[in-house]
Amino acid sequence: MEALLSLAFDNLSSYDGPKIKKGLKQVEGLLAPICLASAKTKKKQAALDDEHMQQKQKSTPKTLEELTDDPAFFEFFKLQEGFEWNIAQRLLDTLDRLLSRGSDGQNDLLIMSTLDLTQGVLLLHPPSKVLFAREKYMNLLLDLLEPVNCPAIQSATLLTLVVALIDTPQNTRSFESLDGLLTVTSIFKSRSTSREVKLKLVEFLYFYLMPETPSIPRADVRDSMPAMLQRSPSKLAKAFGNAPSGRKRRSSDDEPDFTLSSEEKQALLGRYLHNVDDLVRDLTAHTPFGGVVC
């Protein structure tokens, strides 16, 4: 896996569009087999299906329980602990370079592909979300939201931002401190913003107003478990009980999570948007996202 990542990272670090595209495909090719069920595991069932159903079966997503017993996922998760092999950081650095190249059709497609992959990596390895507590990377997402970018990029960025903020209050505080609320509400109020983006912005504001959880649920702290895994979801953590020790970090007891209530966030948002009460009433009445973000 290290050899495959090395090839992908070499291409992602290029300034040549085709090489960057190749690097993104290589990362996607590495992650897809981890996420998708093997046809062998469904061999008996596939034998009863027609050719169309067999093809569909090959792309069946794995369940969380299947991932915890998958050696490839185990290896992937361990590699993400180190700076050298962390995919999320490489993708964000690639985004930074792509953004500096200006806007054209091919570059926009590369940005959207990079954003899509970033979302997937953050979902597969939630501890990588800690990158967005850093000003550099949160500012990168805010820059991608600017109207100079096409609506498709703005929409993809909003989804990436949601993934980065879920169960990670420290990232939400970073978003707020960098005037993220001013950015999204200014775009929302602008007449030049497309209807598609405005709908995504309303969804984002609903999400922002949801109650916060203290952080990604963490497993029991053990010396035998890599430090970042101690913040991983408990259903995943059991897969790493015998993992070698990783680099040391301060425990979460030394890094308290600063959460805000929905009412406090409503007050913050009210500085920039006058109809926040309407959003809150709608949120209470219809409970989008099932009433929780998990």
UniProtKB/TrEMBL annotation:
<protein>
    <submittedName>
        <fullName>Cell division control protein 14</fullName>
    </submittedName>
</protein>
<dbReference type="GO" id="GO:0051301">
    <property type="term" value="P:cell division"/>
</dbReference>
<keyword id="KW-0132">Cell division</keyword>
<dbReference type="InterPro" id="IPR012535">
    <property type="entry name" value="Cell_div_Cdc14"/>
</dbReference>
<dbReference type="Pfam" id="PF08045">
    <property type="entry name" value="CDC14"/>
</dbReference>
<feature type="region of interest" description="Disordered">
    <location>
        <begin position="238"/>
        <end position="259"/>
    </location>
</feature>
<keyword id="KW-0131">Cell cycle</keyword>
